Each structure stands twice: as C-alpha cells, then as structure tokens.
Amino acid sequence: xxxxxxxxxxxxxxxxxxxxxxxxxxxxxxxxxxxxxxxxxxxxxxxxxxxxxxxxxxxxxxxxxxxxxxxxxxxxxxxxxxxxxxxxxxxxxxxxxxxxxxxxxxxxxxxxxxxxxxxxxxxxxxxxxxxxxxxxxxxxxxxxxxxxxxxxxxxxxxxxxxxxxxxxxxxxxxxxxxxxxxxxxxxxxxxxxxxxxxxxxxxxxxxxxxxxxxxxxxxxxxxxxxxxxxxxxxxxxxxxxxxxxxxxxxxxxxxxxxxxxxxxxxxxxxxxxxxxxxxxxxxxxxxxxxxxxxxxxxxxxxxxxxxxxxxxxxxxxxxxxxxxxxxxxxxxxxxxxxxxxxxxxxxxxxxxxxxxxxxxxxxxxxxxxxxxxxxxxxxxxxxxxxxxxxxxxxxxxxxxxxxxxxxxxxxxxxxxxxxxxxxxxxxxxxxxxxxxxxxxxxxxxxxxxxxxxxxxxxxxxxxxxxxxxxxxxxxxxxxxxxxxxxxxxxxxxxxxxxxxxxxxxxxxxxxxxxxxxxxxxxxxxxxxxxxxxxxxxxxxxxxxxxxxxxxxxxxxxxxxxxxxxxxxxxxxxxxxxxxxxxxxxxxxxxxxxxxxxxxxxxxxxxxxxxxxxxxxxxxxxxxxxxxxxxxxxxxxxxxxxxxxxxxxxxxxxxxxxxxxxxxxxxxxxxxxxxxxxxxxxxxxxxxxxxxxxxxxxxxxxxxxxxxxxxxxxxxxxxxxxxxxxxxxxxxxxxxxxxxxxxxxxxx
Length: 747
Ligand code: GLC
Hints:
Elements: H1 25-33, H2 36-42, E1 44-47, H3 66-74, E2 80-82, H4 87-98, E3 108-111, H5 124-128, H6 133-148, E4 154-155, H7 179-194, E5 209-211, H8 230-237, H9 239-246, E6 251-254, E7 258-259, E8 262-263, H10 268-278, E9 284-287, H11 294-297, H12 304-314, E10 319-320, H13 324-334, H14 340-356, H15 369-375, H16 379-390, E11 394-398, E12 412-415, H17 441-448, E13 455-458, H18 470-479, E14 483-489, H19 508-518, E15 524-529, H20 538-541, E16 545-548, H21 556-564, E17 578-579, E18 618-620, E19 631-638, E20 642-643, E21 649-657, E22 663-673, E23 684-693, E24 698-705, E25 712-713, E26 719-720, E27 724-731, E28 738-744
Parallel strand pairs: 1-2, 1-10, 2-3, 3-4, 5-6, 6-9, 12-13, 12-14, 14-15, 15-16, 20-28
Antiparallel strand pairs: 7-8, 11-16, 17-18, 19-21, 21-24, 22-23, 22-27, 25-26, 27-28
This protein binds alpha-D-glucopyranose.
Alpha-D-glucopyranose (GLC) binds at residues 58, 112, 156, 209, 288-289, 497.
C-alpha cells in the first residue's frame, strides 16, 4: 500500500470495540455499598468552578461555586467535573473525592479539547481538508498530551457530525460533508486522543459526538428539529460514530436535537436499541449540556422529574450540568419508575470508565505541576500547529500563477479586519487557548519577508462595520503597493455553536472594501478567514488568487506566510462544497441525480433540476484544491469489467507531476451505483490517497473495491448490496476524473 495511503473503509457496521463486559470485583463491591445519592453523584457532571475556568464557557451562568462543588464532591454527589484546567485545582478537587468522600471514588476531569488546548491547532474542518488522517491523529495526540498535563482525563471530541448545510455554525467543528472522510478522520482522532494505553497519564478518553444527526438540523438552524429517513440516518450520520467506536472510543454524547420528533437525549431506540443492542457499545453516554432538562422544552417531558426519568431510561448514563439525576433518581427509584438495575448499570459503566483510565489505582494521574510546565506550549507543539495550518490551507484560485510571492522585491499591502488581528485566529471551541501564543497575519508575513518594512498594513474596516477613514487609508495603501493581500471573512463569533447564518457571504462592509481595493487595479490575493464554506461573489470571487485559510490556530500568521511565500506548497482539498450562492444550501456533492438532472449545457432552461438564475453546482466543489505544481491522471485500469460477488476490484491510475516543483496531490476514488432499489448519490467518495511527487515524476496509484464498499440501506432499512452496473472515477475532486465502469455480478 502506498505511503500515506488510506485503506478503504472496511468500517464494520456491526459491533465496535467492546469495553469490559462485566464490571470488576472492585466495582461490584463498591456498587454494593453505594447509596442512591452516591450512585446519582457518579452519574452527574458539572462545570468545574474549583479550577479557574476561562470565562463563562458554557451557556448557563455556572450555578455552583468552588466551595459548593468541593462540599458536594466530599459528599460523593459528583462524579465528573468539566472545563476546568490546571493541576493545582485538580489536586484540590481530587483530594476532596479520594481523601474526603466516604467511598473515595476518584473524579473524572473532562473538557472540550476540540482542536488543541493551550496551543491551538486548525479548526477540525480546516484540518479535515488535509485529507491526512495521520496528521489528524498527531494533532489529537499532541492536544491530549498538553491537556492531560493540565489535569484532564477526558475530551468531548471528536465532533463527528456530518454537516451538509453551511448555514450551521458547527460545521467548523467536524470533518465536513462527506461520510467516508468523516469515518476515516473520526477513527484517526480517537486514536490520537486515546493513545495506545488509556492508563497512560497522557491519554484522554475520546467522545465522538453528538449522537446523533446533529449536523442535519433543519435549515442549518442550530438546535433545530431533524427530519431524516432511516436510510440517511444509517448511511450518512451514524457511520462516523461506528468508526470512532471501532477505534476504541468508550464514550459518546447525546445530541440536543430530536430525530423525527424524538429528542436524542430521550431516544431509547437510538441510545439503547441501536447503540448498545445493535452495535454492542459498552461505554458511557453523557448528555450534552442540560440536554436532559431540555426534554421539557422539547415538549417531550412533562417536567424536570419526567425528563430525568426519560433520559436515564433511554440510556443516558451521565447528566451534564442540569443536576436532574441528583434531584430525582432517589425518588424515581423509590417509586419504581426507574428500576435500580437501570441506575446500577449506568454506575457500573461510569466506574468501569474510571477503572479503564487507571484512576482507582492512580487517582492523581495527570496531576503533576512539573509535567504541566514541561508539556505546555512547547516549541514542538507550535511547530505542529504551524505544519497543520499549512497543510489545511486550500488554494482555490491562482490566476497567472501570482502565488507563491517572492520574499523580496515587492511592496505588499495587507488590508482587512484580520490583517493584524490576534483575536480571530484560533476559531470556535478554543477557549483554553493561550492568546499570547497567537501569531497574526502581519507578524507572520513580516517574519517571512526579507524586508519587513515593505509590508503596509491597513485595517480598512471592522468585521461588520465601517472604520472612520478606513477605506481611504486602505485604498492609498493599495495604490502604493505591488500586490494587495486582502484579509477578510468571518470573525470567530460568526461561527461555532449557536452561530447559524442565513447568508454565508462575507459581511457587506468587507465586500465593499474589496470593491474599493479592486478599483485600484492592483492584483489582489484573498486570504479568506472562515469556519464554513463561504458564498464568494463579485471582486472577491474574481480576485487573482484566493486562499481558504479558515481559522488555523495559534500559528495562523506563520502558516499563511509559509504558503504565501512558497515554503509550503498547498495540498489541502475542500472538505465542504463552496456554493455559488447561499440560497443553494443545504448543498453537498453527493446528492441524488433526481429524475430531471440539469443538462451539461449551462444555458439550458428547460424543466430541469436547476435554480432559475443559476445551475445547482459548486463554485468550488468538494475535494477541490490547487497547488504550486500541476498533476495529471492517466491510464485508468480496472482489473475486470465484471466483478464476481466475492471478489476484489483492483483499480489503478497513473499520477504525474507535470509541474516544476515537488508537490502532494490527493487522488480520490468515487463510485456511482447506476441502478438500485433506492436512488443513489451521483457520486460517493470511497477512498483517497495523498501522493507526493517530484517534478516530472509519476506513480501508479492503486485502490481496491469490494462489495461491502458498495452497500447502502435498502428495503426494510437493512444494509444491502445489489448486483448491476457501477461507475467509478479516479479523480482530483468530486466533479472530474478518469471514468470507468464495472458490473457487480450476482452472487
Ligand atoms: C456544548 C456543546 C457540546 C460540549 C458541551 C460541554 O453546548 O454542544 O459539544 O461538549 O456543551 O461544553
């Protein structure tokens, strides 16, 4: 298999990795001694006010202060604390549990370590564009190493929600619109966070979230209802969770949303029948933040007591932040509405989790101030953040090969609200980030230029408002420069949770700034700042060059400079489609053809599946990206035109670097099931390989397809595969490629 090759997903759709099926004698002995209050305590997680959290990082005002939490911990009424950091506070909290409580059960310390900790890496969506699971594993491992050094055991990551509507703010947090890419990266990130041994003090429990289908919220409106067919749920939204569990994840988090009227957090069919019954998951389900209490607002629970009953009976083991289990499990079990056996099963799973981490034998694991100092914000972490940033940047346009820029001999004007901004480089879900590490664009560019004085910087406008005299100063700077770098896009608070947007263009004032700059006639390179696909228009869309630079983390300025000046040859590909207009959302490459697919002729207007004013296609499609060299695919070969039911189809094509510099390409394998008992996507990604080639070099790239890669959810909502004709492409993106076909023969 080629270096960097990604084996085709053989992800099982059956049972994943299993935790211990029976609790140990230690746990059974503990359980036998526990009161119902202590049991409810183990099933309760609260925001950690014992350790100085960074700001109010959760929606509610934290309703318990440090003294209350310490007292509750000593009383055995808390099992997990979340989103605190720092070894001193961890020591105080763990002492309260292990030395101060009756049963001395250690606390779990959890946090949202989503894309880095103190040192921040690119947002997961950006990093997913690297199409490099090894890179994703490395950054997750690095994040776990840094976060565990600060007294944390458990991260509420990776977010594995497949997101097909760019209006949703949380698309930033996942792996984008494709299920296969989502599976591969979910597996890699779980391996990274958990490491090789969960008892190692630098390992963290991973949590593929949000279970399930949170990415399918109607209209991309966060927390909105989800209406899904069983087939789409099982084909698109569940497989990344299965891949994560197959990689060893022992926890998951229930989602805020409902699915077809049944809220996930009260959904027994989802949380027990599918998760545990079908898949054999033995780990722990934690609710999302007050999601159990929100069953009342959903109109699914009559009151808080009913909500606690429904959540625990559905299969939610730990209640996050609401305190409902502490309040109501004693009376619910006394009345028999909740069998004690149900509570005991949840407590066993939580205690088994603590045992899996080695906390009973080593409760002060990951609490060492010397290690914290040694493993935080190291040069290696910064270098990895810079490398990951450079590998996440997608080159969308490079007219006339204006990029890479020379390091000397040109006057550059860096213009826009993100030119010198350090507050919007890390993106959402990076509240632990050490801001002093943040490298803004101007700093990164100056460090890379031979003569930093030849960089002029003008803000031009605010993110969404004008700046007195800003346009005039920016135009003057552009007129004095040879090339303009336009640092525009979304700010951090326009992306992430509860940041859905009805219009995914850049803010109007920035578009007007771009128009004023373009009127100078100077060549413009757009450095787009964004947490989702953006609908580009006008002079921004038509700029000489466009780099999709997302939110790249602490080293943003250096990573962008590396690509701008050619130290790094951009090799990332789009993990989400950039539409022509916002109104196309939800837009994704692997939609169905419909009965009236739009003809190739762009001007055809007859009754076909297209918008009145535009075709329903991407400006920049999923899988697309340019580099500083060019590649050509040729010589597609299939091992047979007729694949026997139990055989393997071998596919090969030749990739040649037809340019002048070394580069990496992402060769993609797509299929289409031409005729099936359910309509199938126009294309489905089934494999990809990163290939690095010197100029003029070429290499054969090989893939394999078996019938399990051709499965879909068919009649009776079961996974099936049907014989017949399949198209196959070895491609550079989801819209091009060398085309072939084969027939899968009947069994
Ligand atoms: C948030 C998010 C979830 C996060 C949790 C704890 O609301 O939905 O992803 O892990 O609360 O912060």
